Amino acid sequence: MNRDLGQKIYVAGHRGMVGSAIVRNLEAQGYQNIITKTHAQLDLTNQSAVSQFFAAEKPDQVYLAAAKVGGIHANNTFPAEFIYQNLMMEANVIHQAFEHGVKKLLFLGSSCIYPKLASQPMAESALLTGTLEPTNEPYAIAKIAGIKLCESYNRQYGISHGLDYRSVMPTNLYGPGDNYYPENSHVIPALIRKFHEAKVNQAPEVVIWGTGTPMREFLYVDDMAAASVFVMDLDKSTYDQHTAPMQSHINVGFGSDITIAQLAATVGKVVGYQGQIVYDPSKPDGTLRKWMDSGRLNRLGWKAQIKFDEGLALAYQDFLRMNQ
Ligand SMILES: NC(=O)c1ccc[n+]([C@@H]2O[C@H](COP(=O)([O-])OP(=O)(O)OC[C@H]3O[C@@H](n4cnc5c(N)ncnc54)[C@H](OP(=O)(O)O)[C@@H]3O)[C@@H](O)[C@H]2O)c1
Ligand 1: does its nearest atom lie under 6 Å from the Cβ of 13? Predict the structure, then answer.
């Protein structure tokens, strides 16, 4: 492990779900020199603003957790914004980090970089082996470009400039800071809201779309932050042994997946809902399975710590706090 608690660390996207968890983790570990800027203070799509920021701050490390993120509807409606803004943020931050002497950077990607029909669990080697899911292809292409930016800068400047830019690909995340708006939330916050409202209204049943049989993997966001700091702090020789220059990204998953029916039952229990859970098979199931192969990260010595029901209980507390 390479730990210097006095290093100046820039967390981009610190008000987001993942960025805020990274800041919590770094602070808990004793890192004392963390710098942040809100979107209003620094628009990362603005090249000259990003250049001025790096020139003024000269951080030692960068966590790139800022991104334009959204669900299927937003991705389908605003594909130009998703590809443009994410490409610009990545290109600006990674290039300006290089220009201003940042040796270490961690880029946050997503499991949507893998082909729609990748075999399960999805290993890092599945990248660029097939066609992407069309609904979020522009976003996925931008995320793949982020990985390739890190790799290309390492390959060209790694030895001459001591550059070491890494990337991690999280599975579905949940926890504090999640988006609970019904129109565009992910499955866990959507179910938390649904079961909570059913409990409050004493509804006799909660209807879940589809058959309940598709399988999904979920990781608590503080585990994701812990994995991010773990990967950033890994010795270069250890990291190099487990990655390749043109296949350097590392999956971060919980390690196992559950059915939507198991998920619904657990959310119902955590929320304290007493009624029936009913499935509506006339509604689409979506992809049957989406599960990351986290073997590379496990072999490096990290695995998820927060059990699913514990994480859900914490997420429900967060929902209650947000909706007081
Ligand atoms: N949440 C998940 O389940 C999940 C799963 C896999 C991967 N990830 C990845 O993790 C990363 C972070 O996701 P998240 O869930 O934390 O997203 P989030 O909650 O939406 O946070 C993203 C942050 O980026 C900031 N941002 C967006 N555009 C910006 C710009 N032009 N300039 C400066 N800041 C900007 C946002 O600020 P404003 O809100 O002020 O715009 C926000 O604070 C993303 O790369 C995402 O792909 C997330």
Answer: yes
What stretches of the chain show up as alpha helix (H) in DSSP?
17-29, 47-57, 72-77, 79-99, 137-161, 187-200, 221-233, 236-242, 260-271, 295-300, 308-322
Name, in order, each residue with C-beta under 8 angstroms of 274's C-beta and a sequence gap of 6 or more: 199
Local structure of 13: helix, strand or coil: coil
The amino acid at residue 197 is E
Ligand 1: residue of 14, 20, 39, 47 to mutate (most ligand atoms within 8 A of CB) is 39
Active site residues: 139
Ligand 1 pocket residue status of 231, Cβ below 6 Å? no
pLDDT in tens, the chain (324 residues): 657 899 999 999 999 999 999 999 999 999 999 999 999 999 999 999 999 999 999 999 999 999 999 888 889 999 999 999 999 999 999 999 999 999 999 999 999 999 999 999 999 999 999 999 999 999 999 999 999 999 999 999 999 999 999 999 999 999 999 988 877 778 999 999 999 999 999 999 999 999 999 999 999 999 999 999 999 999 999 999 999 999 999 999 999 999 999 999 999 999 999 999 999 999 988 888 999 999 999 999 999 999 999 999 999 999 999 987
Q: Does ligand 1 have an atom closer than 6 angstroms to the CB of 18?
A: yes
Q: Is 225 helix (H, G, I), strand (E, B) or coil?
A: helix
Q: Which atom of ligand 1 is nearest to the CA of 112?
A: 6
Structure tokens at 241: 């042994």
